[in-house]
């Protein structure tokens, strides 16, 4: 059995759908197609008004009331409604890779748990570097430097660009229904109905509701010392190798 899901990273309902897709991993093939539901937003997003915040609280209250036994929904009220183009681009580069599930989970959690502006490619770069380097994607900017989003918020590779266009065209052809959209068994379910159907799949398959997951930001294992030119681009935990004296050299001089 396979499921097709159209979703936006800034949607509470899509956030729950993603968490349920994580629990279904290994049982059901989920084809996650990210779309930007509010493409008209300015590049920097829009600050949430008091009314917007109250509306979010109401939506999450509805979602929390429908959670399954043992199901969690951690979240915080974000400050901004982001233009999710950059997040969609990042996902389009990593979907189908060995880190696809981790990348999707990270993008949702950056916004809904940490309040990060996922519409800013510069903000996304640091948390995404680890999973991008572990992804196995062969394109040079991803494989060598950990880039997943261009500075203009678009995808880096031609294949990812075509995926973004196709996903959006498919969603528009469905007449822009509420997200998430779930295509399953010939039916099209939208919004809360889609979220509930994913919940039914969890119950039917008797899967663990909150499976253990690793840190999606972790870097790939490196044997030996990476070259200084590479570290100058990536930084991360390797940066200290070139900021501090080699401890072994200090011991040998003693």
From TrEMBL:
<dbReference type="GO" id="GO:0016853">
    <property type="term" value="F:isomerase activity"/>
</dbReference>
<dbReference type="InterPro" id="IPR001853">
    <property type="entry name" value="DSBA-like_thioredoxin_dom"/>
</dbReference>
<protein>
    <submittedName>
        <fullName>2-hydroxychromene-2-carboxylate isomerase</fullName>
    </submittedName>
</protein>
<keyword id="KW-0413">Isomerase</keyword>
<dbReference type="Pfam" id="PF01323">
    <property type="entry name" value="DSBA"/>
</dbReference>
<dbReference type="InterPro" id="IPR036249">
    <property type="entry name" value="Thioredoxin-like_sf"/>
</dbReference>
<feature type="domain" description="DSBA-like thioredoxin">
    <location>
        <begin position="3"/>
        <end position="126"/>
    </location>
</feature>
<dbReference type="GO" id="GO:0016491">
    <property type="term" value="F:oxidoreductase activity"/>
</dbReference>
